[in-house]
Amino acid sequence: MTDAIAHPSVARLDTQKPKNGLVSRYWLLATLVFMVAVFAFLRPQLVDSSNIATILRSSAMTAIMILGLTWVIAAGKIDVSFMHVAALGNMTTAYLLAGGHGWLVAGLVGVSVGAVAGLFNGLLVAVMRLQPLIVTIATGGICASIAAALGKGTSIRIADPGPLGDLIFTNIGPVPVIAIAVAGLYALSWYAQEKLTFGHYIFATAQSEAAVDQAGVSVRNLLMLLFVFSGVMSALTGVLLAASLSSGQPMIGSSYFIDGLTAVLLGGMMLRIGKPNVLGTTTAILILAVLVSGSALLGWADYQRQIIKGILLLIGVTVAMRAVNGRQSQHAEAS
Amino acid sequence: MTRTFTLPAGSGRFLAFLLLVVLVATAFTLAEPRFLSTQNMSAVTRHMAANGLAALGLTFVVIVRKFDLSFAGTACFAAMTIGYLIALGQPLWIAILAGIVVGAAIGAFNGVVISYFRFPDIVTTIATGSIAAGLAFVYSNGRTIFQNFMSSGILDLNDARVFGYSLSFVFLLGLYAAAWFFMHRTRYGASFYATGENPVAAYYSGVPTRLYTMLAFVACGITCVLAVLLILAESGTADTNEGANLLMPAYAGVFLGTALMGRTSVMATLAGTFLITMLLDGFSLLGIPFYYSDGVVSAILLAGVVFFDARLREFLSDIGSFLQPASAKKEKRS
Predict the structure, then answer these.
(1) What is the mean pLDDT of chain B?
(2) In the 8-state DSSP scheme, what is residue A172?
(3) With contacts defined as CB-CB under 8 Å, which chain A residues touch B251?
């Protein structure tokens, strides 16, 4: 089983003409609008400019972290080490700052640690062809351990959040600067994914690695690039979180695990059904952020949100599977 | 595969495993003489029980070539269910039965949607695991449950001994023996392997592949409850994250075992779990801080997967074939 996410029957439909219905293509966006409307009706504070800024800022962080992950999953692999790589980048930065280094050095080293982790994942998955789930569970565990060891099991305080801290908390109107930057980043990524051969190769790799290789494109290099990119983006988020929280938190990763995967996989249920894509990811991140903010305003407990997220993910898969089955007459035999 | 020189598959691997165990044990004993004490050995066997049970169910799922990421969440929910019923004053067996039913139900749900409705396994089990972990908070709003634990008799599960070994370890061995017989000595076990190897061929050979895939998930749901039951008995309280630590050792046990023994099997998982438990226990005996334990398990897992990789073995056997005397090459390589 090389293909971690796309189910055989999901993969099979792509050989046919895509004629996704309007509903199945845009239901996620409709859900976002509906959720904002309902929460805003129940709790008007949701659309306060300060709350909007908070939602956008936290969404921007998540969005940077899982941009690389989106493409890794789109290429039919999986990376469950991303949140621990972010924690490692976070702790490395905090550790260096506490050791008296400047923000420039600390931040750069923090990001490069992510590149190293990504390179390692890439080597094991793309070159040695090992199972991506097992490999990234293991590398994630190692990253988490190193992150905890840097702080001897506890968090590291950062005295001065530095210029990054200022940047993160600067708003233009209700919109944080970082959200604008992330929007630009995602626009670029969308262009790369839809208009450049790069994106075609990603989705083609999920279909058949052999075919992509036969066509003269090195799957190995592509996967390598994707894993390194994923590692760098996760670690970059870790560095940004260090600035925004003024501390290094070794356990910061765990809260992003379910959210990150849910966002990517839910996003894969929009526009290109069954294929994670950057616009879908953006929408799903916003849905999760609105859900968190709105339910906090309504006084829901954390576990209730978690249950809702899980159900949302299941609904997403169901919608995608229905879209597949509706288009396909039954392949009733053994899957 | 007619190679003139291949590393032997069955007994050779077992001997290599034994050698590895002896090496590790010797290294630990040299560093810390208490390692071989009966007290430590009984601790190893007890720790092994919980991890081994969770890994057993996962073995079934991995054999049918699926993944289950939900069992940690399932274990949390089942643990709180058991704790809640004990706190209500229900008899112990009812509480345990309810926990097992919870595990089986979640496993059955996973199995049905993945095998019959062909949902993608990783996504679906992440979702159900997340829901189950959330449901664990429902009974007590996240508070630890400890009422009636003393009087319920659940602690006896931890303290009871059979022939000097803890009951949990004997239970583990018994269950593994049963699973081994089922998987490797009956046609049902062969059907599990067939489902994993080639579902289409298995289907046309009369194996109800979907049923087997579903049953694998049910087995995984049940064994993770049994694993968390032992943890409950040891800690004497039910916590909402009681089962969260099962995920990593279970995956490590299954895949390290696969790497060691060449393919996923019941005995391979037992071997992998044993090695990991021994290493973890040894490191904690040496006073290595808790936050390294996940890293140690991960590093062992990674090392096992990389160094026992089939391609690396082929590479080595190729080198071996170059080094043989020319007259010994009787058959051509295909």
Answers:
(1) 86
(2) E
(3) 134, 137
Answer with the residue of higher pLDDT: B4 or B317: B317
Q: Does A130 touch chain B (CB under 8 A)?
A: yes
Tell me how far apart the alpha carbons of residues B10 and B13 are, in angstroms, rounded to a whole number.
Answer: 6
Q: Is B166 helix (H, G, I), strand (E, B) or coil?
A: strand
For each of the domains in chain A, give its residue range(s) and CATH number, in order of start. 21-323 (1.10.3470)
CB under 8 Å to B60, separation ≥6 — which residues?
A: B183, B192, B215, B216, B219, B220
ipTM of the complex, rounded to two decimals: 0.79
Of the candidates B79, B84, B132, B85, the residue with the CA atom closest to the CA atom of residue B107: B132
Is the per-residue pLDDT at A29 higher than 50? yes
Two tokens, residue A248: 């290094």
Mean pLDDT for A191-212 is 90
Query: What is residue A174's three-state secondary structure?
Result: coil
Locate A286 and state its tokens.
């916003």
Give A153's contacts in chain B (Cβ within 8 Å): 289-291
Instruction: Provide, rounded to the nearest whole percent, the portion of chain B with pLDDT above 70.
Output: 93
Q: Among all residues of chain B, which has the CA nearest to that of A312? A: B127
A8 vs A197 pLDDT, higher one: A197
Helix axes B209-235, B38-63, angle to 10 degrees: 160
Whole-number pLDDT of residue A283? 92
Residue B280 tokens read as: 């973890």
CB contact, 8 Å: B143 with chain A?
A: no
Q: Which residue among A133, A313, A335 places its CB closest to the CB of B118?
A: A335
Residue A331 confidence (pLDDT) above 60: no
Per-residue pLDDT at A8: 45
Which is it for the CA torsion A206, A207, A211, A215, positive or negative? Answer: negative
Residue of B268 and A334 predicted with greater confidence: B268
Task: Please tell me which of the candidates B65, B120, B141 has its beta carbon nearest to residue A5.
Answer: B120
For A220-267, the DSSP string reads HHHHHHHHHHHHHHHHHHHHHHHHHHTEE-TTTTHHHHHHHHHHHHHH
Q: Are A145 and B294 inside 8 Å of each other by CB?
A: yes
- pLDDT over threshold 50, residue B69: yes
Compute the distance between CA of residue B108 and CA of residue B105 in angstroms, rounded to an integer.
5
Domain ranges of chain B: 11-321
Specify the amino acid at residue B50.
A
User: Over 90: is that where the pLDDT of A81 sits?
Assistant: yes
pLDDT of the residue at A299: 86
Round the CA-based radius of gyration of chain B to a whole number and report it: 21
Contact B130 A258 (CB under 8 A): yes
CB-CB contact of A57 with A181 (8 Å): no
CA distance B114 to B126: 12
Low-confidence winner among A170-184, A307-321, B8-22, B56-70 (lowest mean pLDDT): B8-22
CATH top class, domain B11-321: mainly alpha
How confident is the model at residue A323, as a pLDDT?
66
Count Cβ–Cβ pairs < 8 Å, chain A vs chain B. 146
Nearest-CB residue to A141 (from B120, B134, B297)? B297
Apex B47 CA angle, B44 and B49, nearest 5: 110
Q: Is the dihedral of CA A245, A247, A248, A250 positive or negative?
A: negative
